[in-house]
Every structure is written in structure tokens, then in C-alpha cells.
Amino acid sequence: MLVTILFIFCIFYTSDAFKMTKVEENNYGMRNITWECEFCLSGCSLARYFVNDFYWRDIYMLGAEKLCAFISSEKIKKICDKYTSKYLPEILDAIGSVFVPEEICLP
After folding, report:
1. pLDDT for res 78
2. Considering only Cβ atoms within 10 Å of each terminal Cβ, which end of the chain, N or C, has fewer?
3. Residue 56: domain span
4. E strand or H helix at 44, and its extent?
């Protein structure tokens, strides 16, 4: 049963005849995009939100601090705390700048 469903999905996914297009303008200023593009745009927007939102940044920082707290060696724990406080915000900024839906999802 599962194989049949996957086979039908693959046919619909790969066939150009079944791709739906939208002619109206969307939030991204693109025209005539397929549902795959819309799905990609939505996914990238969600990923960008999870990286750039201050609430989620605080959650990531808290998680990294808790991870460092589990380290038994004090020397390694200090290094972990230093990297968490100094480099994690920079890494999140770099990742957030990569998630530009209009550049990743080209029609």
C-alpha cells in the first residue's frame, strides 16, 4: 500500500502536467510560481524566522549554555562557555543571512 502511494506521489511530483502555477502576485513579488516554489519559499521563510527571531535565539543560547554545563572538565567547560557567548550569535547571524527565500527558491 505504501509503495503504491509513493509511486503515485512520484508520478505527480515529476510530471509537468500536474504542476499548478499561480499567476497572481504573491508576498515575494514573483509571478507564475509552482506549488514546489511556494513550498520552498514557505520553508525558507520559516527557517529564517527560527534563526532570526530573538525568542528562538535565546532558546539556542540557553540550550548551548546547558550543553556546556554538562561538560565535566572545567577547562573545556570554560572554552565552551567562551565560544557560546562569543561565536554562537555570529554563527546565527551568518546562517540567518543565508536564508533569503527569494535567492534560494528560484522559479
Report:
1. 93
2. N
3. 2-104
4. helix 35-52
Instruction: Answer yes or no: are the C-beta atoms of 87 and 79 closer than 8 Å.
Output: no
What CATH number is associated with residue 10?
1.10.225
Q: Tell me which amino acid residue 71 is.
A: I
E strands along 4-107, which residues?
A: 21-22, 33-34
51: amino acid identity, one letter: V
From CA 106, how far away is CA 98, in angstroms rounded? 15
Whether the CB-CB separation of 16 and 84 falls below 8 Å is answered with no
* 92: CB partners within 8 A, 6+ apart: 51, 52, 57, 60
Choose between 73 and 99: higher pLDDT: 73
Domain tally for the chain?
Answer: 1
Q: Can you tell me the distance from the alpha carbon of 15 to that of 59, in angstroms, rounded to the nearest whole number? A: 42
Distance CA 99, CA 50 (A): 10
| This model's pTM is above 0.70 | no
